[in-house]
Amino acid sequence: MIARCVAGLVLLSVGGAAAGPSLRAPPAGTISGKVTYTGTPPKMRPIDMSKEPACVTQHPTPVMTQDVVTGPANSVRYVVVYISAGDQGAPAATDTVRYDQKGCLYIPHVAVMQVHQPLEIFNDDPHSHNIHPLARVNPEWNKSQPKGAPPIRAAWDQPEFIPVKCNVHPWMHGYFAVLATPHFAVTDSSGNFSLAGLPPGTYTVTAWHERFGSKSQEVTVGGSETKTANFVLTARPY
Amino acid sequence: MRPQTRWLTLLSACGAVLLFCGATRIVAQEAHVDRLTGRAAAGKPLYTRYCAGCHGDEGDARGENAQWIDPKPRDFTMATFKCRSTPSGSLPTDQDLYNSMTRGFVTTNMPPWVALTPHNRVDMVAYIKTFSPRWRTAKPGTPITIPPEPAPTVQSILRGRDQFQRLECWKCHGPAGHGDGPSAHDLTDSKDDPIRPYDFQTGTRFMCGSTNQDLYRIFMTGLDGSPMPSFDDQLKPADAWDLVHFLRTLQPLKTPELKIWREWFSTHGRELKPIGPEGGGR
Amino acid sequence: MVKRFLKAAAPLATLLCAAMVPNRGGITARSYTAAYAALATRIPAFARKYGLRCSACHTAWPELSAFGQRFKDNGYQLGNDRDSPIWQTNGYWPIAMRTTPQWRLESTTNQITDAAPAGKTLTQAGFDLSGIDFLLLGTLYKDITFGLVPTLDADGTAGVEAAFVRFDNLGSSPWANVKVGKFELDNLLGEKRLTWLSSNGGFLYAYHYLPVGSANNFGFGDNQIGAEFSGHSINSYTRYSVSLLTGDDGEAGLPGGKSMDAMFTLSHAVALGSGLGPQRVGVFGYLGHRPTVFDSIGGASIPGTGSANKSFVRFGATAQLWMGNLELIPLVSHASDDAALGPGADKPAWNSALLEAHYVTNPRLLVQGRYELLRMSKQGDPAIPKTQGNADAFALGVRAYPFMFSRDGLAFHAEFAMTKTIGTVPLSGDGSGVDPVSPATVVWSRSLLLAFDFAF
Predict the structure, then answer these.
(1) What whole-number percentage of chain C has pLDDT above 90?
(2) Which residues in chain B have their CB less than 8 angstroms from residue A156's CB?
(3) I want to staple B175 with a disulfide (CB 3.0 to 4.6 A). Which of B116, B276, C3, C363 is the partner?
(4) Which tens digit of pLDDT belongs to each residue from C80-136?
(5) Helix, strand and coil percent figures for chain C, each rounded to 5
């Protein structure tokens, strides 16, 4: 791996030197695919928000729990897909990740970020929430955020899938997926994901879901091609 | 040196270091309280004698009695502690751990260990810090600054009451601090065990002390590992002292705050709107 | 036996003895089994109640650690408001029992028998039982403590070693506590928590010795009936107690009549060094009274009509010093009885000193030794030789606890003890019970004990 790294750097520098004043972007491939499930997923239930009338009014129809959100053709939403091995020293992600508390829900349900990447947590509701990331590897903290308070800024030092909860509203349940890699994606409502900007190489791609566990596969990307990697997670009804 | 010998030497050195690291995990850890230095190696037999029955020989809250205890003993491997002088998410100071051990926790199975000599207690603090790798990579947080307390006045108490309403403490602690707020019954701690919020009307000692300074520290640093969050970002020190003064009026203790409050309340009580969804205030 | 000797020698003593119910704790008036059976306090029920291992309250049970001393001083309340039975787990069985099946050997030299009037060595050896202590201690309510310790001797005799109520933290102050009933005196070196069990090692000469011809029945280590006013600092480093007691050496029924005793203790500890406990020093004093005259009917004494009380004193100083895992317990004391309680016209007086050393290797291994000496400074009758009654006692022991747990406990106990007394029967009661051939005869009494000491 080190040899490859060195070779890559040499190539880059050589390529850069050969290009002269105008820089040619290095070749970047894409891994994309779809995550589906087999088996029987658990049934989601409507959330009872009656403890917080201000949230009940924000949802004309009750919201379902979001532990398992499925889509057409057995697709799974909120699956974090990321490069777990093979990363070649990609530049760190620096844009701020936004996490909202709105209508007594976490939006998005799963927020993905790289280690050290800035995170901003907003309270868009007319009442207090407390943000309580239940980290085990990273430090666990718990902060109150009343209505109208400025966003809470945070960043994480270690990769970890951190469950997030609000103690005042016990149905609120989300995740911070903190990853070592800047190459990550979260599947959409149709279970699709896309990891772009990957230099040529062999990568281990992992798909993680909070209930269905994780699966990995190796994908080799060369040049600017798009490789497909689909995942099938095993669902259980409980 | 020939290359092979050099590698061998390097490898042996690495091996020795690794082997030693296991041993020095304990030996190297120290704690400092007042003028005492505690050493983990001395704390280990004391921990086995006094603590392991609940906290477990590995510090993971799996002592033989842990299963029968509610609330559960502290899991030292997580390095998350309720009673700190440092911000939420940061490690406590040695003094924080020493104070918790000395004071004990009223309404839990953790007794006050004040009868042990200070030296014994500091040694045990040092040993407790060996259970989690975080103590080797992170430093304790910086203790929060607690400005001097202003004298309690009715205005301070009324402002504190407004804070209690605004920050929605009543959602867990209840409008009268009875631990019966709308969210009180579903609370779980970070290990998913049920937990109840403090009931001010019992007047029992707080988890982390009994003075006004302790109370200030509790809600400004939060009780990590529990549903109680930190309000450090949301309260200016003056507001925090107002809240302390108001919270004292919820307890049936002989405090100057309660005396002032009762006098005022007897003539002006009707002006107040109840705390809760109605909005509090006057 | 001692009893027979006293009956023959002193009518007064006979009256007193007859008035007494055999006291399990009073070594002098009983058979060998009593010597080591007077052991009480080590409470697995507390371990079960609070989830603490025995080693939390005891350096090596039954000896108390500083934490256990504070727990006891606080009225068996742990200080976290979780003492009420409603907080207890299903495993909490509130009664604890302690007993010690054993193998032992006793051997006493220079014992007079019919067949050997010049004295011979009497030996007995075999498996034996101790009595059983039932320990019921706890709180009736917050700051109201109770204690009840019924006992069963190995021969089946039942007794009550302790029965008391204590009102703790009066005025919310740890300095004011009142205890009423039958209880152990607040000695810094408590005989009820000795780590010794043998016939010769299981008691202290300093506490139980009575000189030749004494009519007294007092044992400083015996539980007494009365009221105690006591107090302690928050961490129990400073402690005091003042007691008013009935002068019957813990016998119920007021057999003595109207005699009252008084006792005080005072101790202070400092946290010096890094040993297993603070350094404690203390002083104690006991002023007792015993009746010398009884009313009679038909020539026989009427129990409970004692009068003409005469006094006696015991006082001394003791300490508990820690150096790492080594504990040193020195004790010095002086005792004197009124002449009327002795055989002659003089006031008998004696001094004793002892040094006990414990090495608590870890909570599961204790190695210990003790040396004690007692010297008469004045006999009660000039005709009694100066050295008669002097004693030297020596003991060595090991206690190994195969587990240290919070349900119950077991100790493998090995002990060797020997006493040398001059011209009197050994205090253990071993031997033929008859005084040796001459007042200068040196009597050696040895005990070897291998025991399984368990408490549930």
Answers:
(1) 68
(2) none
(3) B276
(4) 888 887 777 666 777 899 999 999 999 999 999 999 999 999 999 999 999 999 999
(5) 15, 45, 40
